[in-house]
């Protein structure tokens, strides 16, 4: 859970998550919406992938990133559990 919260603590990573909710994207597609280099976006994606929030698959020479919905559901369930324990 600590890795998830660390990954979510960064505004750029939260924006990347919002983008990936809309559609699966390559690092180059994601980088177009940022004033950051492609290696910087790749780093953010690696942090999100390490936390289990996104996953990637190869399509030709590109890695395509998508939201790992099981992790998002885990986060939601965790927050709901906090609410239910009040």
Automatic annotation (TrEMBL):
Query: Which InterPro entries does the entry link to?
Result: ArsR-like_HTH (IPR011991), HTH_ArsR_DNA-bd_dom (IPR001845), HTH_MetalResp_TranReg (IPR051081), WH-like_DNA-bd_sf (IPR036388), WH_DNA-bd_sf (IPR036390)
HTH arsR-type domain span: 1-86
- Pfam families membership: HTH_5
Matching entries from Gene3D superfamilies are given as: Winged helix-like DNA-binding domain superfamily/Winged helix DNA-binding domain
Source taxon at top rank = Bacteria
* UniProt GO molecular function: DNA binding; DNA-binding transcription factor activity
| Family annotation (PROSITE patterns) | HTH_ARSR_2 (PS50987)
Sorted alphabetically, which keywords does the UniProt record give?
A: DNA-binding, Transcription, Transcription regulation
The answer to whether UniProt assigns keyword Transcription to this entry is: yes
NCBIfam families per UniProt: HTH_metalloreg
Matching PANTHER family: TRANSCRIPTIONAL REGULATOR, ARSR FAMILY (PTHR33154), TRANSCRIPTIONAL REPRESSOR SDPR (PTHR33154:SF33)
This protein is called Transcriptional regulator
Q: What is the lineage of its organism?
A: Bacteria, Bacillati, Bacillota, Clostridia, Eubacteriales
């Amino acid at each position: 859970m600590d890795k998830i919260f660390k990954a979510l603590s960064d505004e750029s990573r939260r924006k990347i998550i919002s983008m990936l909710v809309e559609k699966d994207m390559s690092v180059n597609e994601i980088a177009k919406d940022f004033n950051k280099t492609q290696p910087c976006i790749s780093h953010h994606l690696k942090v999100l992938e390490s936390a289990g929030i996104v996953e990637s698959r190869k399509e030709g020479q590109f890695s395509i990133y998508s939201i790992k919905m099981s992790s998002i559901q885990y986060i939601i369930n965790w927050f709901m559990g906090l609410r239910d324990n009040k």
